[in-house]
């Protein structure tokens, strides 16, 4: 694991990560994910890689699914612990590609593009293998991941805007040779600018990723002993097409 990932997810990031009721915490975003994961757990226990502050894990545990988390950042885990104690959601500090958690699970899941935080192909393959080590026969590994937007890059350009809304602008800078991307997030108070006529202060957040094509992801799954069971464009089961910007892919181990 790239040590910069631990630096990125520090105490400041943990404090600003939760946005109750909005963004990725909005009911229309979180609800379908929890509903689908509860069905895929099929009455068994679940393990969340990169559990963060518990956005999904706490809600899934509230549905009656026993959930354990693996988390690299001590600051993120501490934020989770403010909301749920160890009896509700145990957390093991460590790397999702190598950390072993006691027990056997029916479901391992990795949401919100987090697989791309692993900076090499070898680490991403090891993440699949680590998931397989935690699963019983027929167990599932679920990955939510974005589709690289390389088709939006004009010739000779290396950056594409993925979000432009009041108070936030985001763009990705691609290195297509190394299959890397750095996401740039600019946050500012537009109301302050309108009220004062002065430029608002801007906060920049950077996050490096290694992007993965769906077909490459399927090969990683096979190397880990999985077969692709299903792929949809979102948690609600919309069809995955050439225009889909993300996907939810379900991989399954053989039943025997």
Whole-number count of domains: 2
- The helix/strand class is alpha/beta
Largest sheet: 7 strands, mixed
Which series of helices and strands comes N to C? Answer: HHHEHEHEEHEEEEHEHEE
Q: Count the strands?
A: 11
Distance between the termini: 32 Å
CATH topology of the largest domain: Rossmann fold
EC number: 2.1.-.-
Protein name: Class I SAM-dependent methyltransferase
Organism: Streptomyces doudnae
GO molecular function, one term: methyltransferase activity
Word description of this protein:
InterPro entries: Methyltransf_25 (IPR041698), SAM-dependent_MTases_sf (IPR029063). This is Class I SAM-dependent methyltransferase. Keywords: Methyltransferase, Transferase. The protein is an alpha/beta fold and 256 residues long. It folds into two domains: 186 residues, Rossmann fold, CATH 3.40.50; 61 residues. 28% of the residues lie in helices and 30% in strands. The chain is built from eight helices and eleven strands. The strands form two sheets. It has a seven-stranded mixed sheet. A hairpin with a 2-residue loop joins strand 6 and strand 7. The radius of gyration is 19 Å and the shape is globular. The mean pLDDT is 91.
Please specify the SSE layout and strand pairing:
Blueprint: H1 4-8, H2 11-17, H3 27-41, E1 46-49, H4 57-62, E2 67-71, H5 74-81, E3 91-93, E4 105-110, H6 121-134, E5 135-146, E6 159-165, E7 168-175, E8 180-188, H7 190-196, E9 202-210, H8 214-223, E10 227-232, E11 246-252
Parallel strand pairs: 1-2, 1-4, 2-3, 4-5
Antiparallel strand pairs: 5-11, 6-7, 7-8, 8-9, 10-11
């Amino acid at each position: 694991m790239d040590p910069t990932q631990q630096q990125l997810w520090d105490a400041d990031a943990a404090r600003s990560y939760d946005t109750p009721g909005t963004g990725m915490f909005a009911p229309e975003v979180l609800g379908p994910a929890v509903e689908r994961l509860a069905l895929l757990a099929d009455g068994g226990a679940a393990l969340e890689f990169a559990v963060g502050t518990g956005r999904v894990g706490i809600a899934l545990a509230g549905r009656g699914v026993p959930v354990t988390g693996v988390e690299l950042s001590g600051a993120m885990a501490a934020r989770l612990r403010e909301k749920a104690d160890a009896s509700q959601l145990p957390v093991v500090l460590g790397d999702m590609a190598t950390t072993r958690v006691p027990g056997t699970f029916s479901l391992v899941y990795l949401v919100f593009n987090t697989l791309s935080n692993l900076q090499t192909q070898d680490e991403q393959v090891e993440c699949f293998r680590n998931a397989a080590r935690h699963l019983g026969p027929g167990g599932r590994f679920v990955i939510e991941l974005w589709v690289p937007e390389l088709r939006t890059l004009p010739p000779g350009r290396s950056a594409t805007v993925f979000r432009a809304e009041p108070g936030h602008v985001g763009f990705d800078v691609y290195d297509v040779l190394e299959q890397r991307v750095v996401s740039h997030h600019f946050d500012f108070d537009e109301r302050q600018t309108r009220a004062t006529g002065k430029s608002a202060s801007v906060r920049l957040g950077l996050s490096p990723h290694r992007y993965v094509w769906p077909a490459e992801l399927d090969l990683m799954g096979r190397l880990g002993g999985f077969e692709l069971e299903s792929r949809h464009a979102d948690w609600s089961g919309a069809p995955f097409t050439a225009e889909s910007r993300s996907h939810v892919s379900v991989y399954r181990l053989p039943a025997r």
